[in-house]
Amino acid sequence: MSKMWDGRFGKEIDKDVNDFNSSIMFDKRLYEEDIKGSLAHAAMLAAVGIISYDDSQLITDGLTAILDDLNSGKLVFDMTAEDIHMFIEAELTKRVGDAGKRLHTARSRNDQVALDMRMYVVKETNAIIEIIKSFIKTLVGIAEKNTSTLMPGYTHLQQAQPVTLAEHMLAYCAMFLRDIDRLNDSKKRTLVLPLGACALAGTTFPIDRQYVKDKLDFNEVGFNSMDCVSDRDFVIELLSNIALIMVHISRLAEEVILWASAEFKFIELDDAYATGSSIMPNKKNPDVAELARGKSGRVIGDLMGMLAVMKGIPLAYNKDMQEDKECLFDAADTVKQVVTIFGKMLETTTFSDGNMAKDAEKGFINATDCADYLVKKGLPFRTAYKIVGSIIGYCIKNGKVLTSMTLDEYKEFSEFFDKDVYDAVNLNTCLNKRTSEGAPSKVSVEKQIKTVKGKLGK
Fold first, then answer.
1. Dist. CA 229–CA 202, nearest whole Å
2. Helix (H/G/I), strand (E/B), else coil: 435
3. Tell me, what's the pLDDT at 7?
4. Residue 206 or 25, more confident
């Protein structure tokens, strides 16, 4: 395919350079955005009298047919084209003649690709939001079934205090809800129209950028033409949001891996979402969770790559910015795949409430409640804290837990202990007395579930 800029050059571009320069192998996925942007541009050109309505109609009909043919597979991409923009323009000109050549009036590929990328980022953002909402619903479903399922809560990966499985799942709901907030917020900065900035310095034609903004449902028009074509901060922002989503997924994946181990035995993964070993017939490996954890590193790499691309680019457009696409495409594809399959894995996972409760009994996670018991009897907290610490040391030495201590043993440490200490250190009591907002008691957890559902719009 001949180049649109051939007139300036005296010889054909080297084949290797052409392959190196070409982007159609990956930017072809922008064809819908490119055509929609061109339809709006053609309508504006006619509305302000830069091209005739007849030419605008020919362009519109031609672009619509190209879109239909690409969607149906009737038209295939010409991989010798420089990029998707030149492919579509060449195909349009082939179909409608000189009218197609008028489409690029008052437009550069610089503002054209910036528009395509902004439209694509918004489309991907919306798709990711819907997938995360579905994932949160899965977490809420687990929470609703486990509002009383006792398990140890951890700090430093050491057993700390009693919580419920519901509380644990709802903690991730809170994270992913913030991810949705960030994604929605970033759309405001993405829906800024770059078209009309042209190469970098606008145009002498009497274009109407507000017309195009309204046609494409953008929020505002970019007020500086150089900025419109020279930054990809909106891509970086989405990559940052995706990286954070993947970090949250990776944290949950790490817990799934631990919980599925023989040492924890908190969960049993469904056979459809686990794999075996090529040599050890006893193995059931949590590969889905491991891959999710691993792919988070890849997505973080996409973000770092894009930051590195942009960090040293002078104004305005530079070819370096072509590197924005593969980073974006990879990260968006990855997060959608990972969140979807991870949700399906969790939906089919069996949670062992018996093993969770049994494990909680061994970790002295009622120690704080024992100290609070003494405080309510009149002791200063630090005094109570020291007494309970001594009790824990005694229990470890003698193979006991707080619930198996005799009252006489308790009284050796403090006369403030009485029969009611057993109710105070009972794990279910410890749990259900935690009624403060956001705590793991059944009452509090049920409120949290309502909060999450409300935020999801249910």
1. 10
2. coil
3. 53
4. 206
What is the spatial distance between Cα 104 and Cα 102, in angstroms, rounded to a whole number?
6
Neighbours of 455 (CB within 10 A): 15
Q: Which two tokens stand for residue 57?
A: 């109609």
Rg (CA), the chain: 30
Give the length of the chain: 458
Q: What b-and-e string marks burial along 411-441, b requiring 16 or more CB atoms within 10 Å of the CB?
A: eebbebbeeebeebbbbeebbbebeeeebbb
Residue 220 CB neighbours (<10 A): 13
Q: Which residues pair with 161 in a beta bridge?
A: 153
Closest CA to 117 of 240, 242, 234: 234
DSSP 8-state secondary structure symbol assigned to residue 275? B
In whole angstroms, give the CA distance from residue 407 to residue 419.
7
Whether 144 contacts 103, CB under 8 Å: no
Nearest alpha-carbon partner for 417 in 364, 375, 362: 375
Query: DSSP class of residue 277?
Result: -
Segment 328-357, tens digit of pLDDT: 999 999 999 999 999 999 999 999 999 999
Neighbours of 19 (CB within 10 A): 12
- How far, in Å, are 23, 44, 95 from residue 87 at the CA level? 11, 22, 12
What angle is formed at CA 189 by the lines to CA 183 and CA 194, rounded to 5 degrees?
A: 135
Q: Coil, strand or helix: which one is 75?
A: coil
Tokens found for residue 388: 């309970």
Pull the structure tokens for residue 356: 């969770």
Please report, in angstroms and rounded to a whole number, the separation of the first and last CA atoms in the chain. Answer: 53
Full-prediction pTM beyond 0.90? yes
* Diameter of the chain measured on Cα atoms: 101
Q: Which residues are catalytic?
A: 156, 277
Tokens of residue 371, six digits: 């100290």
Rounded to whole angstroms, how far apart are CA atoms 147 and 449?
10
Whole-number Cα distances in Å, 431 to 147, 150, 161, 171, 443:
11, 8, 9, 16, 10
